[in-house]
Design a protein that fits this description.
The chain folds into 2 domains: 134 residues, Aspartate Aminotransferase, domain 1 (Alpha-Beta Complex); 257 residues, Type I PLP-dependent aspartate aminotransferase-like (Major domain) (Aspartate Aminotransferase, domain 2), CATH 3.40.640. Helix content is 41%, strand content 16%. A 7-stranded mixed β-sheet has the order 4-10-9-8-7-5-6, with helices on both faces. A hairpin with a 4-residue loop joins β11 and β12. The radius of gyration is 22 Å and the shape is globular.
Length: 423
């Protein structure tokens, strides 16, 4: 019998029991089918950027071949086609994120630009001398540096929530640091360095009880879990297409319409205006007010195709499959002599960071590459996390929907080779 409160677990297990044809999925990603150093590629660097399915590649290629033109400005056929494709992609992103209106979806170059937009625009109008911005120790540099720049510019203070030895937020400390001076909370949904899934619903509820808005860095969450910004009730949520099997240089910022309406423009130029004179400029309506200049039109088309692809599989099915794969990988790596996993939160997504006794992570990555295995090594743009765990760097194996148990087995074999070289 299922225990009360475990309905989510039952739903995920049911989803995982439906056929998840990973062989078919792998066949749709041409980049996976190549040899590296004479050995079949095992791609385990998905947290940095993911491979692309043929469906997305074709959508971008077809757009450039047949429909390319600038958008919103022309009355000719190609411009109308391009505009329709671009705005159709926005509607797909709106539905994928669960936003109430397409006016709440701003196209950006990626999560980094989305955070910078909020820090500059919302921060410029709402964060001043003596105010505070609250982030966490596990943030990616993209969710640290823009807030540092804002605080330095406006005379505010940056407050940081610590994490425990498992890589989980110290929520009691969060409650202590959240105060009347806190003007915004910015936190990652999933840690890129640890895989920790943060309790963002609780964070949002606590912040909103004090009238404080919350920005969620969703770069690492969007490829792995379903997102519903209205259910979360977050104020800002930003994602990157390239981590979701889509094109690079493309992403989206969700922001509540009531907040966007009050925020000053981020950049000036074409398409974000209604009229310009030397005396006064009148800004365009939402969301175009925040999209200055010719955008990445083909990137948006590819982003829309990416969402079609993910929806065709189902985010619940992806999450269930990856949860099983993560469990398998974690158990397999724990059996490697001298290996220590960095970040063992009770709720994790598909990231396994680790160190090997006496062997630098860069050496691990170099030898694994000779075996055709791609992992990421370094500080992962999360140097405060490395400092917290007393390491200069880690090796990171990050999983995606096209990875398999055989990929994990190859990694374990590769690590045996690493240990032999340094024995």
């Amino acid at each position: 019998m299922t225990a009360p409160g475990n309905t989510e677990v039952v739903a995920r297990s049911s989803a995982s029991n439906r056929a998840f044809d990973v062989d078919r999925i792998r066949g749709e990603f041409p980049g996976l089918h190549q040899d590296i150093k004479g050995k079949p590629l095992v791609y385990l660097d998905n947290a940095a950027s993911s491979q692309k399915p043929q469906q997305v590649i074709d959508a971008i290629s077809d757009f450039y071949a047949h429909d390319y033109s600038n958008i919103h400005r022309g009355v000719h056929e190609l411009s109308e086609r391009a505009t329709k494709a671009y705005e159709s992609a926005r509607l797909k992103v709106q539905a994928f994120m669960g936003a109430a209106s397409e006016r709440e979806i701003v196209f950006v170059r990626g999560t980094t630009e989305g955070i910078n937009l909020v820090a500059d625009s919302f921060g410029r109008a709402n964060v001043g001398e003596g105010d505070e911005v609250l982030i966490t120790t596990m943030e990616h540099h993209s969710n640290i540096v823009p807030w540092q720049m804002l605080c330095e510019r406006n005379g505010a203070s940056l407050k940081v929530v610590p994490i425990n030895d498992r890589g989980e937020l110290e929520m009691e400390e969060f409650k202590k640091l959240l105060g009347s001076k806190t003007k915004i909370v910015a936190v990652g949904h999933v840690s890129n360095a640890l895989g920790t899934i943060n309790p963002i619903r609780t964070i949002i509820e606590l912040a909103h009880a004090q009238g404080t808005p919350v920005l969620i860095d969703g770069a690492q969450a969007a490829p792995h879990v379903a997102i519903d910004v209205r259910e979360l009730d977050c104020d800002f949520y930003t994602i990157s297409a390239h981590k979701m099997f889509g094109p690079s240089g493309m992403g989206a910022l969700y922001a509540k319409e009531s907040l966007l309406e009050k925020m000053p423009p981020y950049q000036g130029g074409g398409d974000m205006i209604l009229s310009v004179s030397f005396e006064k400029t009148t800004y365009n309506r939402l969301p175009f007010r925040f999209e200055a200049g010719t955008p990445n039109i083909a990137g948006a088309v590819g982003f829309g195709a990416t969402i079609d692809y993910l929806n065709g599989i189902g985010m619940d099915r992806i999450a269930a499959y990856e949860e099983e794969l993560l469990d398998y990988g974690t158990n397999a790596l724990r059996d490697v002599p001298g290996l220590r996993i960095v970040g063992e939160a009770s709720h994790k997504a598909s990231v396994i960071s680790f160190v090997l006794d006496g062997i630098h992570p860069h050496d691990i990555g170099t030898i694994l590459d000779q075996e055709g295995i791609a992992v990421r090594t370094g500080h992962h743009c999360a140097q405060p996390v490395m400092d917290r765990f007393g390491v200069a760097a880690t090796a990171r194996a990050s999983l995606a929907l096209y990875n398999t148990r055989e990929d994990i087995d190859r990694l374990v074999e590769g690590l045996a080779t690493v240990r032999e070289v340094f024995s």
